[in-house]
Amino acid sequence: MLRCDHCLLEFAEEKAVFDTVKGLEKAFCCHGCRGVYRLINEEELGEFYEKRGSSWTPGPPDESGIDIPAFAETIKEKGEESEIDIFCNGIRCASCVWLIERLLLKTEGVKFARLNYATHKAKIRWDSSVVSLEKLLKRINSVGYTPKPVTQGGSDEFIKARRDLLLRFGTAAFFSMQLMIYTTALYAGYFQGIGSGTKTLFQLLSLLLTTPILFYSGAPFLRGSITGLRNLSFNMDLLIVTGAGSAYLYSIYQIFIGGEVYFDTSAMIITLILLGRYIETGAKARASEVITQLLSLSPKEARLVIESAEDGQQTAEGISNLQYEMAPVSDIKVGNLILIKPGERIPLDGTIAEGSSEIDESPLTGESRPVSKHRGDEVFSGTQNLYGSFVFEVKRTGEDTVLSHIIKTVEDAQARRAPVQALADRVVGYFVPSVLAMSFITALFWLFSGRPLTEAVMNSVSVLVIACPCALGLATPLAILTGTTRGASRGIFIKGGDVIERAKDIDTIVLDKTGTITEGKPELAAFKGIGISDNEALRLASSLELLSEHSIGKAIVTGGAGMQTYIVSDFAAYPGRGVKGNINGKAAFIGNRTFIESEGVDDMLSGELTSWIHAEEDSGRTAVYLSYDGNIAGIFIVSDTIRREAHESVKEIRAKGKDVIMITGDNRKAALSVAKEAGISENNVTAQKSPSEKAEEIMRMQGKGRRVMMVGDGINDAPALVQADVGVAMGRATDIALESADIVLMRNDLRMIPETLRLSKTTYNVIRQNLFWALIYNLVAVPLAIMGMLHPIFAAIAMTLSSLSVVGNSMRLKRV
Amino acid sequence: MWSVLLLIFFTLCIGLAAWLLFLWSVKSGQYDDIEGPKYRMLDDDNDKKK
Question: What pTM does this model have?
């Protein structure tokens, strides 16, 4: 097996395309890769290959064509230059951004090229008399990215909303800063005396500065409270508007009668709450990308086989002579034959009619080992063909494919997830009516005690003003911000505050088996030599497997690390079966049982060995056979080991009084043996579940009133991650799992789960304390307002103190 | 008193200028991509050798 220097795909040596680039011999899987590699190097962009590292996910470029007229509409002419925004598909990392920008800038005529890493949108300015748009787009396409015209998409809307919020908050902040200058002067004047002319001037300036805050920055709250009132609900917006609005109107009245003003209260309420909202929106940015990413797994076009000679006798060589045409996937019907070449993604579900290959099904199953597929085996949409070519008969199209089912499950689960009411909103639900009632009672009280109407109204308004807790807007977001920052510094990424609220109520933790409880990569568990010593067998095997790229081979090499290896000649790999080579002039084979038998090695295992192998296979492990010089020479047992900290972590979670449940797509026997080792009781093991069944299982638990946290790492876990109250993706999880999860653990360490639970609980407690501190000062000041004894200085002190307590209390989280 | 009024006028002007600068920076999209620049910084700019 060789690895293509450009796309990193593995391919058989005989198919290699060799080329000398910059004096170095390079191997490619196809002429396309060779061409791109040359192009990139000729443009002096060879650095790209160093930047991307080896963690690059190989995949064929999106082959959908470029529709030039669609772009033409979005070109903006700016004098001699043209400008366009385009959307680039296929960007995965910062090196992609670098590559595209450099490639464009090196093109003659391009004046400006900048790609937004967050939105994948590029802005290009170029001289259209020097270079055509078509050429630019083709250049982007030639390195494997697909330019798309910018249409009104979801991410655009989001950027716009966020910009709007930032503008409103920024404006409020600038005017509040100016306002503070005059407010400070007025407070000083309250204590030390101030000329009435100056006082009025400062009050008018304050009015001037507060007006845009209230009516521009506060406009969303005004709209929100009107909508709320129409539905007869008391929402947070209404409280903000009543507080800020009454302070504003009251102050205007006070200017006329020469009293004290409260413009600062009005401005600060709005500014602080906008800040809170701005902090909140940041984390939710990528939610809608899950589905786009899932959809991008299935290709848009396929090679439709045209009436082949249906003698059923076609061999692998026969496949290359087939006639085919490119057809859009949407036109393909059940029963059609599709040709798949190495490295391509499979567009639809079906069964292989001719040929065989190895398929990487990890996007669907999370299983990293390639699965070998032969005639009659099922293949699934979205999985990637690795080595061979084959023809398959389409069995399911469109909505019916397994991939579509997963997409639909994720969509459904996301849509069904009710918007979690922020804790502050719940408090507000009681708070607003009671404040309104109190202010009404105050008015009545003063009227009945025989005071004039104006005094009664003034006192009741001052109740409204003082009761509006401006620190309330900061109480939740600030605690969440410090809590999530604290988590991030330990490798726990929490997406949003609602997650924290849900995480603290979790009573059931569901763990996926492969990759979560186990390492997800095979290790050599045991080995035995037959006719030779155990160590000799391992030495032979690791010498042979040293040249193999397969994960089981690597497990054996790791197992034999430090041993001196033999020199192997005539090495050859048989994907899905094994490898062979010559050691000391004698033929050596290592692989699965059928491979060894097919190579003419007689199976001469004793009954004792056979039952040992069976026992190991029953507990979910894999046996690999070594033959040397025509005789069976060793047995290697490879297993996916359970994480070292699994037992301890499960114990810790259970000590917190929470249930631990294991769920897996594997067979029950393998599941039980892992569960036993991890200390999970047999009743809590659910085996042989498909991705959507995993989600159903979680739904069933939720139906029983449980609050479920799901921990997993593959696409196959994605529906379950979304369905669960809290989805947690572990370390090397697939992109889809990362996107669907609420919490992402950066390290593959199960101990982080109890830590996450602890962190969310502490954060939640801090939120509650913050709400208390935000409200308590106001509650103390309200009686004073009712009594008509409220001095502006009390209002100022209450406001400052409650804000300081909230900030100080939140900072405690930094030391949790 | 005139000096105070003058100073008030100045602060309002400076504040207004800062606000307009802020409006311009947001509208020109400087806050849209807060993820990319941290990587961009690490790219060696080979072009500057010219």
Answer: 0.56
